[in-house]
Design brief:
The protein is α+β, with helices and mostly antiparallel strands and 246 residues long. Helix content is 51%, strand content 13%.
Length: 246
């Protein structure tokens, strides 16, 4: 049996043995982790656009890696998406020339680890990235087989209404809040959309928060970029009236 048939057989077996009630993206992510013998993984759609959406993570470590890439705007998943090729990043305490900030922070999450970012390109166009990590060693199958598996998973996601809707029209509350917060910052500072999003990312990094958490603060009014609190670390925040001494 050739590599493609093997991968399809393993995928079918994993899906058949999984929780049929779980969303398809969750089952596909778990299958990829199992088939490739990774320690964890994530499926992300449109990795380099404002609509970037992580549809499934297998564990907290993978979720943290995706948060870091979203906040920093750098990482193997970003390059895998933009260049349509597999990116392997070894994080072992040595300064990374490609992703210096991401690599430093990622090592604090789990220690030495190897990340494998594989583009999902079922129809020739990259729609997202399968990102896997292993603390030791390589994946259970070669990169060519892993690429075929990622493409097959991408094709499955394109046929899943929930994933297609999330990719084309980000209606999930988390994505809606990021868009809304970006619009608020544009109105507050009269800046371009890409600058507003960059400012949200920088604030998330400075606060050690996710982009969604910062967006929540902007939408609620707890964070207002039109005001500057000089007692903070340079991040603009809202001061609740009535706390001043008389």
């Amino acid at each position: 049996m050739d590599g493609r048939s093997t991968m399809l057989g393993l995928l079918a077996r994993s899906l058949a043995g999984g929780d049929a009630t779980a969303p398809l993206a969750v089952r596909l992510c778990r299958a990829c982790v199992e088939i490739l013998a990774a320690d964890g993984g994530a499926l992300t759609l449109s990795s380099t656009t404002p609509e970037r959406l992580t549809v499934s993570t297998s564990d907290g470590v993978s979720a943290r890696f995706e948060d870091l890439q979203e906040v920093l705007g750098e990482g193997p998943g970003q390059v895998a998406y933009s260049e349509g090729r597999t990116v392997i990043e070894v994080i072992d305490g040595v300064d990374s020339a490609r992703f210096p900030v991401f690599s430093e922070l990622a090592e604090h999450v789990t220690g030495p680890v190897t990340l494998f970012a594989i583009p999902m390109r079922p129809a020739g166009q990259t729609i997202g990235v399968l990102t896997l990590y292993r603390a030791r060693g390589q994946l259970a199958h070669g990169i060519e087989d892993a690429q075929f598996l990622a493409d097959a998973v991408g094709a499955a996601l394109l046929g899943d209404p929930a994933s297609v809707n999330a990719l084309s029209f980000p209606t999930w509350p988390e994505r809606a809040r990021v868009h809304q917060a970006t619009g608020i910052v544009i109105a507050q500072l009269q800046v371009a959309p890409e600058d507003a999003l960059a400012l949200l990312r920088a604030t998330a990094f400075a606060r050690s928060q996710t982009l969604d958490q910062v967006a929540d603060d902007v939408v609620s009014g707890d964070l207002n970029f039109a005001r500057r609190d000089d007692r903070s670390d340079g991040i603009v925040s809202h001061e609740t009236p009535g706390n001043e001494e008389t």
